[in-house]
Every structure is written in structure tokens, then in C-alpha cells.
Amino acid sequence: MSERPPAADPDELAAQVEAVADVLYGLTPDEFSDARDQFIKQARDQKNQPLARELARLRKPTQSAWLVNQLWRDQREVIEQLFQLSSELSQAQAQASGAALRELTAQRRQLENALLQQAVGLARQKGVHVSDSVAREAQETLGAALALPEVADEVRSGHLVKPATYAGFGTPSTAAPVKTAPREPIDLAAIQRARAARATERSAEAAAAPKETEDDAASRRAAEEAARRAREEREEQERRRAAERRLQEARAVASSAEADLVRAERSLATADQRQHDLRQQLETLREQLRRVEADVQTAEAAAADAQGARDRAESALGEARQAVSEAEAELHGG
Question: Per-domain residue ranges for the chain?
Fold first, then answer.
């Protein structure tokens, strides 16, 4: 009985599937199925059954989904700016800011139009004609991505399978992300050879592909210019909002300082009045003290005079009593 191979690393398998998907979803829809089947065959030849099963789950994109995938590969910075505008639009709606809503809506429309023109130019370079209905589906998918985070994540993956729509309610149908559940070991040789072969093919295709036309160049420049203006306008808005916040904070601090100053001035006036009243009371008490001290001195002088008079009276009394005693003695003796 043969030994069972060890379980494969889920992260490694997911990375391999992601690498193949990046190659497949970069192809035109007409090339997708044959290329996927070739990758599946190579995986099976290398006994990579988990990889073969996961690759078989990859679905051919519709033309509009393919168009959005190409747009993400070529203009992801501009698309991210579009997503950022959507977030700012939501904030403006929540804050009921009419001026900001109008300005941001105009920026969003400008970016969407520039992106759609660029997408048509990218498709033309790969020999794919984009009909009005396909362009409309691609534009509706971008609109759904602005409203629904799960659609935005699908767009960011670059592996969108079918278009999405959003009418203000519900959730649009989108391709489900690939789930991986590996159970067997994986050989990287097949995928590496396939990727190298595809890189060679893409180089040849790029050399044979039509050169960028003036319209394509103009669309690309328009998208870049729209992205630059949108970025500059957002930066200016952020600077203005920051300046307004600083102004409001400074006004609040100044208002608080003015209130503190009023309270301090009132406290100072109260303290000055209290000091004045106490000084008046002190002066009154000092005057009273001077009068009392004068009265004390007068009373002391009067007391001293009275004491002298008493002493003299007492001395006179003693002398008078002595004289009486002597007179009585003389009277009785005679």
C-alpha cells in the first residue's frame, strides 16, 4: 500500500491559484477557456490534483467584466481615487453639504468618463471592439463598486467574472471568490513553465499589437489629468477643512479666554472695592484709637491729680487728728 502524500499548504496553493488567475484574467475572453484548460492539463500531468480542481473553478469573464479587469490593471490609482471620491460623497450626503455634493459629483462624473474612454482604448489595443452595451455594463459595474464594498473588492482583485449593478437597494450579483481546500502536495514546475510561456506569448502579442493611437493617448492623458485635478482638488479641500477646523478651535479658545478675562476683571474689581473698604475701616479704627489714647492720657492726668489731692487731704487729716489729740490732752491735763 502506497504512502499517502502529506497535506498541501493552503497558503501555497492559494498563491499558485492567484498567480494563474492573474495570467488568465489578463487574456481576452476568447482566449480564456483554452488557456485555463491548458493550465489544468499541466497541473494534472504533474499530479497536482488540488491545483487542477481550483483552476477548474475559475470562470470565463464577460466582456464588460474583462474590460473592468483591464482597467484595474492599467488605472488602479485612478480607480482608487474614484473610490475615495465615493467615500467623500457619502460624507457630504451625511453632512447635508450641497456645495460639496455638487463639486464631488462633478469630479466623479469626470473620472468615470475618463476611465471609460481609457478602457475602450485598452480594448482597442488588444483587438477587442467594445459595444455601447458592454461599455454601459462596465460603467454600471464601477457605479456598483462605489456603492458596495464587496463589489469594490472584486474590482480590486482584477478577477471580476460578470458585471454588477446597483439601484440604491439590494446587493448585485457578483462572482464569488475562489475557495481553496488543498489536500495533496503541489509541484510548482508546471505553473512556472506555463507562466514563462505565457510571458513569452504576451511579449510577442505586445510587439504585434497596434500602437497607441492618438485617441488612446488623448484618453490616457485625459484620465491622468482628471486624476491629477481630482487629487489636487481633494488636497485643497482637505487643507481648507483643516484651516476651518483650526479657525474654529482658535475662536473657541479666544471666546474662552475672553470669558476668563471678564471673570478676572470682575474678581479684580471686587478685590479692589474690598481693599478700599477695609482701608477706610482701618483709618476709622486708627482715629478712634487716637481719641481713646488721648482720653486715656487725660484720665491718667486726672487720676494723678486726684491721687495728689487725696494724699494731701490724707496728710491734712492726719495733722488735724494730731492737733485734736494734743488739744484734748492739754484740756484734760490742765
Answer: 10-246
Residues 172, 141: Cα–Cα separation, whole Å: 9
User: Which of 148, 145, 169, 150 is CA-nearest to residue 68?
Assistant: 145
φ, ψ for residue 22, nearest 5 deg: -60, -40
Cα torsion angle, 238, 239, 241, 246, sign: positive
Q: Which long-range contacts (CB under 8 A, 24 or more apart) does 224-228 make?
A: 224/78, 225/114, 226/78, 226/110, 226/111, 226/114, 227/77, 227/78, 227/81, 227/111, 227/114
pTM metric for this prediction? 0.49
Do 73 and 158 contact (CB within 8 A), yes or no? yes
Rounded Cα–Cα distance for residues 252 and 55 (Å)? 62
Please report where in the chains the cell 479657525 appears, as a residue. 247
What does the alpha-carbon distance between residue 24 and residue 21 come to, in Å, rounded to a whole number? 5
Give the separation between CA 41 and CA 239, rounded to whole angstroms. 56
pLDDT tens-digit series, residues 235-262: 777 777 777 777 777 787 777 777 778 7
Confirm if 61 and 69 have CB atoms less than 8 A apart: yes
What is the C-alpha separation between 62 and 58, in angstroms, rounded? Answer: 13
